[in-house]
Amino acid sequence: FFSFVSFLFFFFFPLLSQLFPFYFPSLNLPFLKFKTRNMSSCDVQEFNKVTSEQKEFISLLDSGNPFMLDGAMGTSLYSRGYFINRAFDEANCTCPDKVFAVHEEHIASGADVIETNTFSANRCMLSKYGAADQLEAINRQGVKIARKAINESRRQVFLAGSIGPTGEAIGYMNDSTVETITKAFEEQIHILIDEGCDLLIFETFRHLQEMKICLKVARKCFPGGIIAQMSFEENGNLADGTPPCRVAELLHEWGANAVGPNCDGPAAIYDIAVKMVCKKVAPVVACPNAGHPRLLDSRMLYMATPEYFCVYGKRMLKAGVRGVGGCCGTTGDHLEMLTGSIRMLAAGVDHGELSDDAPDSPKRTERGCAGSVVANINKCEKTLEPVPASERSNFGAKVMRVWEERLKGGTQRKAPTSREDFVVSVEVNPAPGLDVTKRVEEARKLKAAGVDVINIADGPRAAVRVSNTALGLAMQRELGTEVILHVCCRDRNLLGLQSDILGYHVLGLTNLVIITGDPPKMGDYPKATAVFDLDSVSLLQLINGLNRGVDPAGKVSSGQTRFFLATGAEPGAVDYERELKRLRQKVAAGAQLIMTQPVYDIAVANKFLDDIQDLHVPVLLGLCPLVSARNAEFLHNEVPGMQIPDPIRERMKKAGRGPEAVAEGVKIAKEMLNGLQDRVVGCYIMPQLGKFAAAIDILADLGYGAPVENGDAKKENGLC
């Protein structure tokens, strides 16, 4: 009996250990090893077979659609009790359930690409932990665990084989060092390929020489996509002084399909990634840390919030970065925050070239709801002639009159002399809570001061407030003033949007500004889902169809709407060419007025106005009077789409705080208006922190604030 038990222990259980190391990692005994093929030599014919998943990932890179990578493996393992005095990669064999749980969390948070837990699983790094003999098992298990998590998620997620630097002294590299590094990369890369990775990601490399070796090894035997990411110094360059633009060129030249920075704070990664995007040599994929770590109670913690991480994630995506993920300190919470931004920008797909003279015939790839809406509307041949823009609302009538009389279709410039030949919209948003009385009274004072229309955002800052429809209707009924409602695509599907739009028309709310909308990332309910069935271009096309008597299904309706349609634009966009292209698509889709983001640089605004002059569409200049230095820094650093030049921020710092700072903010806004008023039909003012008096102060030179009827102006205005 004893002999039989001994036979089972020494032969049967080790056999299970070799066949199923995922379940029997502790039984991986050294005296029983199966002979495996030599992975240090590459069989090119065998490895160069391209899988369907590898092709699909390359297609994703080519598509232009944004995607999200996963977060930090080490951070998540540490939070689950895995100690940092061991190689995190060993967890693949010692506690695979924890590694699996991290992958599962990242996929559930929305990751489109997850990385194997093999960042340091090369022979050089594992030797430092005495684990080099487990190299093959660690790498194979890393792929198997991640693949199991993907399979159980039942959605398409790409698996990236993660490879980090060897830790060798690159600065003193000789032939022997090159050989050691080459063999280390060959060994690990061949195992990851053999296990079926969809792509490879080389991350946190600090030296170009080492990255070049790694890419050279991979390109000999891997036909799939490769992401190559470098870690930069505080000055924004590599340790050897190479700037980001040149790094992007070299990585692409050496065989990387995508390039980018990783492992630094969100702000630093943003600056580097934007420089790489501007070079336009390859798609850029960036993975910032959660922030900068701080030592608290003997633990290194990342203090930046997921909201802060998401702000920069969205900025990067809007600047043209294709993929964003997380590095050190990032968790599923960070990824969840970012998911809404990914979906929002994915909704803004390329609509092709839309002809300005044929807005109802866009050349567009049909995709989801947006594509089918466009296709259905365009199939309908029986359409009504739209109501002229000047007859759709009083606001629309004044915009078109001023455009024709003062700007002559953009061929002549004439500065306004009074409020009769200038259009003003001031933003008054719903306050938290149920009482709208205060906001209605603020609108009453603005109307008395001569403001033409009240602008009301749709769920500003993705927070829960009274709907802009309810507030707008209250203002319109009680004050007799017109409002212009923001309509965003975030919260409602196609049916809900169509129903609300028809409702606006019935209620007489016919001025709309169409935007894609912010994801619900910074409000009271960050886990709320974003819909984005349509983007701003598609929604403009839908409403333009309703204005012609055609519903989204392509059917002729019993009547037609008469909406005056505006859209937004960002003169200082980082990806300026994309912004112009999108704006042209919006105008071709039916936009009749452009409302810009706040402008703080006259030269930037003039270039923008020059570049869109051929559109022959009136423009409202966005003005956001600053109220303090802190307010300026917040808008510049935390609000996507806002760029406030250093000289302006410096002026606000010198102004200090209180009334002096508010006055300086008004002065800056006046300078912008005075320098550009002969090129725009009017302005769109966004007062900060309830400083509505600042809006009228900006316009004082044009006669705003004077009594509309007999009476004392000061009593009439009473602005606070």
UniProtKB/TrEMBL annotation:
Keywords: FAD, Flavoprotein, Metal-binding, Methyltransferase, Oxidoreductase, Transferase, Zinc. The keyword Oxidoreductase applies. Pfam families: MTHFR (PF02219), S-methyl_trans (PF02574). Its cofactor is FAD; Zn(2+). Pathway: One-carbon metabolism; tetrahydrofolate interconversion. One of its GO terms (molecular function) is methyltransferase activity. This is Hcy-binding domain-containing protein.
